[in-house]
UniProtKB/TrEMBL annotation:
Keywords: Signal
SUPFAM superfamilies reported in the protein's UniProt record: Periplasmic binding protein-like II (SSF53850)
Species per Swiss-Prot/TrEMBL record: Variovorax terrae
Localization in the cell: Periplasm
Name the UniProt record assigns to this protein: ABC transporter substrate-binding protein
Organism placement in taxonomy: Bacteria, Pseudomonadati, Pseudomonadota, Betaproteobacteria, Burkholderiales
PROSITE patterns reported for this sequence: PROKAR_LIPOPROTEIN
């Protein structure tokens, strides 16, 4: 079954269609944003809580979608109008025929950011990259950022990723799956990696980010269908402007920004207080998209030739 059809069939049962569609008039534009609860989206939380969307005529509702590959079919069905999707999932959806475009970037993963971590359940012995062969590795969505990045990391270290048993998990469940022995290894995003390590059920083997290019890696973007954008170009620009204001607010008001983030991440205060927020930027460049295209081609994930420039809304 094609990527989109398979995901759409599953998602139709999971998310009510009554969440609302975008209205025609800008002053009354309603937008449901499907998001994964990670600190990379701090500008989204801030813009919602500080009224930056409201003052631009955007009635924005945030809807959690734990598994990232479920976001493109939700966009296709118009259950959501904007989704925080990983570049790899966006490109895989486009490869299957869904016209998606990038409205804005979310964050940037850098070498010194120590994200994502490779966490190994206590009792599982991993001395080198080859020891991941045969292990059950939890990733938040097949074809999503962490899955693609870890497979690239394995290949760069001489390991055949096909010999690793990947298990699709939701990020909030990763800790329990490690604790229960369902998976041996996980490559979680923050804040979940921190919570896992603090719980003492796993140790950090290393960091995928150690091998990132100096320019960093774009892990998540705000995407929408070309059809929706054709009808709502002004709203899309206003949405991006609200995110930019959220970034500026975060820089000047880190404590208030962290409080907004805490509402959507639902973390204990002690975890929230120490949670690192990665560099934030709405800017998306063609080389950033091309990094993903090259990695996905090397992993046999794309059947067609995709132009990086075609994904970016100017």
């Amino acid at each position: 079954m094609p990527f989109i059809s398979r995901r759409l069939a599953a998602f139709a049962l999971a998310l009510p269609l009554a969440l609302g569609a975008a209205c025609g008039a800008f002053a009354q534009t309603r937008i449901t944003v499907g998001y994964v609860a990670i600190p990379d989206l701090t500008p989204l939380y801030v813009a919602k809580e500080q009224g930056f969307f409201d003052k631009r005529g955007l009635d924005v509702t945030l809807q959690t979608i734990p598994i990232n590959p479920n976001i493109p079919p939700a966009l296709q069905s118009n259950s959501i109008q904007i989704g925080t999707v990983t570049p790899s999932v966006l490109m895989q959806a486009a490869d299957s025929g869904l016209a998606l475009k990038v409205i804005a970037g979310g964050s940037l993963l850098t070498r010194d950011g120590k994200v994502p971590a490779i966490v190994v359940r206590k009792g599982v012995e991993i001395k080198g990259p080859q020891d991941f062969v045969g292990k059950r590795v939890g990733v938040a969505g097949f074809g999503a950022t962490l899955h693609v990045l870890f497979r690239k990391w394995l290949a760069d270290h001489g390991v055949d990723a096909k010999k690793v048993n990947f298990v699709e998990v939701s990020l909030p469940q990763t800790l329990d799956l490690l604790r229960g022995g369902t998976i041996d290894v996980a490559v979680p995003a923050e804040p979940f990696a921190t919570r896992i390590l603090q719980a003492g059920v796993a140790t950090a083997y290393g960091y995928v980010s150690d091998d990132f290019p100096e320019s960093g890696v774009l892990p998540i973007v705000y995407g929408a269908t070309a059809e929706w954008l054709a009808r709502n170009a002004t709203a899309a620009r206003a949405f991006r402007e609200a995110l930019d204001e959220g970034i500026a607010f975060h820089a000047k008001n880190p404590e208030a920004s962290r409080a907004s983030m805490g509402k959507y991440l639902r973390l204990p205060p002690d975890v929230l207080a120490t949670l690192a927020v990665p560099p934030l930027s709405t800017v998306v460049t063609e080389p950033q998209i091309r990094f993903w295209a090259d990695a996905m081609k090397a992993q046999g994930m794309l059947k067609t030739s995709l132009r990086s420039a075609d994904f970016i809304v100017r």
